[in-house]
Amino acid sequence: MTYAINETHDPNLRSWVASANDPNTDFPIQNLPFGVFLPPGENELPSIGVAIGDQVLDLSAVAEELWAEDFSDEIADACTMDLSLRWILSLDVHQLAELRQRISKLLRAEASDHERAVAEAALLPMSAVQMLLPTEIGDYTDFYASVYHATNIGKMFRPDQPLMPNYKWIPIGYHGRASSIVPSGASIRRPVGQTMPDGATTPSFGPSKVLDYELEVGFFVGQGNPQGQPISLSEAEDHIFGLCLVNDWSARDIQRWEYQPLGPFLSKSFATTISPWIVTTAALAPFRAAAFQRADSDPQPLPYLDSPENRERGGFDIRLEVLLTSEQMRQQGMAPHRLSASNTQDLYWTFAQMLTHHTSNGCNLQPGDLLASGTVSGANDGSQGSLIELTERGAKPFTLPTGETRRFLEDGDEVILRGHCERAGFRRIGFGECRGIVMG
Ligand code: MN
Known about the structure:
The chain is of the alpha+beta class and 440 residues long. It has 12 helices and 26 strands. The longest helix is centred in the first third of the chain and has 15 residues, at 93-107.
């Protein structure tokens, strides 16, 4: 079901929203990601939106006008009964497929005059609205699924054994902090914390000097599972509602001192930024990929984490990049400087495997939980998804177009994550941006 390609993916579909037909837009009619926005003006309430070109369709308004006459319409209810995506996240895959069809038809060039009039009245320019978190995020788990990232980091601390013996058997993760997740655009306060500088014998307390980003992709859980009832790998895809970009800001000096033996804590929990539009798994159907090709010398996953379907198309082909602007660059009107590019195909574990492993002990996931991939780094130079890898712990600083150099993030730096999918025979779709400026 989640892999199904249907008429909503037809590359020839055109929308009556002109900007959606621009070949470079992240949000053509084949995408239709969900988000929650605050309209301009005073005393406005948040509403559920769908991105289309450079516009936002107020889905709640459309559902109220076109679908709410039928009192048994659960899909209309999900679009109108809450100021977040909570109810939509709880729909089953068949209902979600129908909702996608309805929105697609409404925005197509062939829409009826009445439908078009209703939808036109519910459009707002994206530049005029404020994007909020898409839902209340009950729990946030961050994985460590890029074997290249794990190897790059492991090498710094254990040159002879970069990967721990468990790495190729279980998707490694830690329990992140949900309360400090913010939408793109929110500024990030440099965290203060305890560190043990090289050569010191007692720790210091003060602002982090080694602030980093992590380029990640996250997914929102749709329907959850009752406690004690694991989600099998064959069912896992039906519980993955959609994906967004994630910046897991990391204070490396705090992390280095605190992380043993229980993992990251305050080095990560001060802030995590997500892109505000959730690109659904349905929209991503044309961009599925084989799971990571394991070397012959690697173990195969245990049976509960393995299936032919997961091997064949459990992965996603999403092209990612990280860009940076310094305050000086912005003052001089310079374009963002690209630091790296990578792809989710480089993840050693699929999202379905992460979700199944997460519930395998009986842990219950809930609609709106966020699970993230961990830093997405590739095998080659220029594909490292964090500065600690790019600059080799600061040993190899790089130069910005202004001549400024960077080892780690300075105050005023803005980190911009972007992601998109393209494949012959399909329309390019994108994720929009995940931005955050570091404040001192
Ligand atoms: Mn991370």
